Amino acid sequence: MSAVSERLDKVLSPLRLLNVGEGHAVVKTVKSIQQNSKPNPRKLFVAEGFWLASLALKDGIEVESLLIAPECVYTLECVNLIERMLPVAGNAYTVSAKVFQKIAEKDKPDGVIAICRMKEWALSDLVFDDKAVVLILDGVEIPGNMGTLVRVADGAGADAVFIVNRKARLTHPKFIHSTMGAAFHVPIVEFESVDDCFDYLQSKKFTVYLADSRAEKMYYELPFGKRVAFVMGSERYGISRVWYDKAVDLVAIPMLGECDSLNVGVAGTVLLYEACVKNKLGGRKK
Predict the structure, then answer these.
(1) Which H/E stretch holds residue 101?
(2) Using CB atoms within 10 A of its CB, is residue 222 exposed (0-12), middle (13-18) or buried (19+)?
(3) For the residues 218-228, what does the mean pLDDT come to?
(4) Residue 45: how many CB atoms within 10 A of its CB?
(5) pLDDT above 70 (res 283)
(6) Where does residue 20 fall: left (phi above 0), alpha (psi -120 to 50 degrees), or beta otherwise?
(7) Which domains occur in the chain, in start order?
(8) pLDDT tens readout for residues 148-157
(9) Is 103 exposed, middle or buried (0-12, 13-18, 19+ CB in 10 A)?
(10) 37/31 Cα distance (integer angstroms)
(11) Is 48 within 8 Å of 41 (Cβ atoms)?
């Protein structure tokens, strides 16, 4: 028995966990979440593997169930993670390597899958300083793009991500993976309508910018230095028309080649970093 197997056995043996097969409800739940095929009112998502599961644990994400495939655990770091997750998991089970490989999406599964519940943020949880930066996703359709933008919001130091006209679930595997764990701690709030979102921003004295190639001002010409929010629209249809009827400003990114626009994730990155550097770092360093 290897050192890893021996250590894992010492952790699991006293617990006498139930070993479950493909027909068990918890395995079916993992498949359902990964396939994004059924209603998910409890907002459950799958954190597969050492890295993603450890980030969920670090950010205090609720772990409903933990699945462990002892034959697939090959590092002491993963054993230590399992030992730390067991006390906070609502339920824990073991599965065979065969079953685990059928539900794992990673090429080289490392023996741990956590079924977690996405953290829900309320507006009352949010506290903004006078130079806060918020990103608004209006009808963004591709889960990977949504996740990338949440990751960018985290990297740039934005204060929150607001969502209107949501087209993809925040529990979609591609969203979870593309956030690289940012969704576990970046405040994400969904609004029922553009009106509700705008009214809230107005009540908090945000200047709202729409990313629009027709704008007279380029993003780098704006001083910011105040509370700002950027609206990024659908990949196919752009920003909802109703935003243009509000008291908003337009901002553009220059297109110097033949393409007339950038991917929404790239455009959001450019705008967020510009605003966050100016607002949170005191401007660009000379």
Answers:
(1) helix 97-103
(2) middle
(3) 95
(4) 25
(5) no
(6) beta
(7) 3-117 (3.30.1330.30), 123-280 (3.40.1280.10)
(8) 999 999 999 9
(9) buried
(10) 9
(11) no
Question: Do the strands 91-94 and 62-68 form a parallel or antiparallel pair, or are they unpaired?
Answer: parallel
Angle at 58 (CA atoms; ends 53, 64), nearest 5 degrees: 55
Q: In the sheet where 18-19 sits, what is the strand order?
A: 18-19, 91-94, 62-68, 112-117, 44-48
Are residues 92 and 70 in contact, defined by beta-carbon separation less than 8 angstroms? no
What is the rounded CA–CA span in Å between residue 83 and residue 97? Answer: 19
Q: Phi and psi of 48, rounded to 5°?
A: -100, 135
Average pLDDT over residues 202-206: 98
Contact 11, 82 (CB under 8 A): yes
- Bridge partners (DSSP) of residue 66 are 92, 114
Residue type, 45: F
Residue with tokens 């901002």: 251
CB contact at 8 A, 63 and 90: yes
